[in-house]
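Sequence in, structure out. Go.
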Amino acid sequence: MVRNTETAEHILVCLSPSPSNPKVVEAAAGIADAFNASLTALYVKPTNYDSLPEEDKARLQNNIRFAEQKGASITTITGDDVPAQIAEYAHISETTKIVAGRSGMQKRHFWSRPPLTEQLILNVPDVDVYIIPDSVADLKQQKEKLYTGHQIRPALKDLIITVLILAACTGIGLLFTQFGFSESNIITVFILGVLVISVITVSPLFGALGSLASVLLFNWFFIDPKFSFHTYEAEYPVTFAIMLISSLITGTLANRIKRNARQSAREAFRTKILLDTSQLLQKAGTSDEILRITADQIIMLLEREVTIIPGSDKDSGEFRAEQNDADIQYYSISLNDYSYGAIAVKLNGRPLEPFENNILMSMLAECALALENLRNAEEKEQAALMARNEQLRSNLLRSISHDIRTPLTSISGNASNLLSHYRQLDDETREQIFSDIYDDSEWLIDLVENLLSISRIENGQMDLHLSSEVLGDVIEEALKHTDRNASRHNISVRGTDDILLVNMEAKLIMQVLINLVNNAIKNTQDGSDIIIESRQDGNEAIVTVRDNGPGIPDDIKPHVFEMFYTGQNKVADGRRGLGLGLALCRSIVEAHHGSITLTDNKPSGCCFTVSLPLSEVKVDE
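Output:
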């Protein structure tokens, strides 16, 4: 049954550290089952996440795991405006229904912001919002108190910094007074001092304390009567109020910018670790090296003790699911139902953050992909050792499934990386990932086409539909479908003034020419000359494809048209060297009662010559 994507339902459930959040998730899962809809669990991570109580973090992790068990895909975004973030994600992901919990918190003042649920309804009027009552009404108040208590803990260092900065501002103000500067300049100095206090100190308490102290110091030292908190002018109380408000706003904005910058720096660091991991794994040559690199990168990411548990075989599935053992959490390293082992992370009483968990999962996927590629390479090498007997042929055919899996897993891994970390990747990295996906998909298409064609021809199952075709037109059309790197070479076509008619199936002869030209493109240096020439020789049409590349050694030439022969990768008729392209060319040409040969192109390079019988009718121009 194919679902109409235009009317498909998408349910979005909001995650939180609330004890009743599993009730909300369970309700959302029930709605998703009822509407046969996809389910996404969204957590909006605040910038002050590090300051949340540890019990809230642990409860959040449990809620995330519960959502995964209910079949939800987990998404984490960072921001402080929770309703706006949820509404924006809902619009981007084409969400049709939102499920959220409701607490007992009410709007206490006319200037207070409406509750989350009311803001959601206002921000997404085109989406159905389902409100699940929250049985823990005072959770938000309790969490706010805990967070405030954590933030306002005084520190002696911050107190000393605040006193020194305020003393410096007072000294500068007294100096300004000696030079006859106006009071507005002195006010600016104190506001600047408050800004510096907010940026340097850790707790926002000192920004507020500096704001109040700056007003009192300004009144004490610079307003008549001096050295008292009285004033003769009626407008000075207004000045003090404006000065206090300006200082508070300045300090608050500075603290917010500081938190955002700290959060952005941490996430940039984690993203860099993921990219570095991918690059290091590509250079690893052994499974032990891959596991060691992965462990080192995870330790750098989490700053925790990590243990790698290697797997033994496909049946070793004891680590296939996450499991907790006291203060240790286990994660599986597996791909395509094959387990390569697991890692054990020591929590030290602090559960992983959602973002840390997502990055960790991506790193484990990269590790599994590298181990998979290494395993495939080892299997191909073992098969290549049996190249001289008939058993090689059957073994290689069975291993083709692994060669197909390699680009497929690469495509899947790169696409997952783009979906999860698109915004953190720079343009150059995204372009490289897109290029890798394109190259792998093109190779898969060529492989499937070659396999189908060569198997049908050799088994006599392909019926040729021959017709008289102009050879020059077939060559011109074939060049339109060559490798996209053809622009890096100098490709030219030469022919006679005569129109050569050949009795052929045009699509198959085009495939021969495409394989020969692509073979030259992939095995010659950039800027090389590739010449396609057609001529008549008696009753045959001759097509040659010449290049001035490094050429092919004499000991390899007799085997280039054999199926699965790669010649130690020096003859590459496919970028992974399965050795199908030239074998297919020979099968197609011989099916047309022609021949194909390989000779040297003096002074360097190769020359492939294809001979095809001419049609009985020959038209002169």
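Check: The radius of gyration is 36 Å. Residues 236-283 form the longest helix (48 residues).
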